[in-house]
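To fix ideas at the outset, we first show an illustrative case, written as a sequence plus integers encoding its fold:
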Amino acid sequence: MLVGVPKEIKIHEYRVGLTPEAVRELTHHGHAVLVQAGAGAGIGADDAAYRASGAEIALDAATVFARADMVVKVKEPQPAECRMLRPGQVLFTYLHLAPDPAQALALCESGCTAIAYETVTDATGGLPLLSPMSEVAGRMAIQVGAVALQKAGGGRGVLLGGVPGVAAGDVVVIGGGTVGTHAARMAVGMGARVTILDKSLPRLRQLDELFEGRVTTQYATVHAREEAMMCADLVVGAVLVPGAAAPKLVRRAQLASMRPGAVVVDVAIDQGGCFETSHPTTHDDPTYIVDGIVHYCVANMPGAVARTSTFALNNATLPFTLALADKGWQQACADDPHLRAGLNVHAGRITHAAVAQALGLVDVPALDAVLGGPAPRPVA
């Protein structure tokens, strides 16, 4: 199979779909890899490194998309990239389609087969290709939140760790999954006072044991969220419904109870955000203020630490990339139900129920798409 790696074109996106080490694995398996010139510059991997790993270098993205059997990316294809996709071609990348009907339509119109990192599952019910970036984003949430709290950024002027004689800042983390756990870890490490809210009692028990009493855990009722946010300097939105749009857990009216200059970091913004007042921002202009509250809603947070993020992502995606290349997408998805869960679009139709429901569309069950089975069924 010929695997193509274009340069990412989303604003301030420096990651790349395959590292030189991943390219070497693919070529070792007998596959050809075509990498766009300069694609790895953001992680410090030049074209010579890719050539040394067995890749061919293409001058432009058009060549990559025209020749590749499978395109491996990081971020969702931009409109110009969607127009270069074709029927029968496989796209393997993050998609986040639920809040993005325009992209969903463009992928359907292309006729390609699109497999989304964020809905691939594992035997424990986890999301193994989302987890590495969730770890990065969770840790970054505290880092960027601490900067936004500075007066120059519109914040309250609070140092999260405090100093002797002055209280530490208060951090509230909504959601105790991967993002929330890593955000809490960083906040605790900085000396902040941390509260984690979640609706799973077993998860709250795990977090209590993990942090050995260094965080406060609370069951996530509306009242508990409101009470915690009233005292918060920094609130991290870390909720996820796989494949679906993030629930709007914090309404605009609730911002009025927060301290002026407090900061919210909405890590769920890729899926539409969990604050009613959230809208996507970029690393160029990452924050804005609503009702006195600073909002940080960058939709590709890990792109700022591209080298760490790319290698972490490739560690997780490479086994699936190899399976797709070695077997072809249909056999790979037939053999592995966890990879099949990543199938979002095939031959003009949505193939993931949660995505289809979020978009108000009819889905084709992924297994039917793989096997060429019965006609589409309506979403329940």
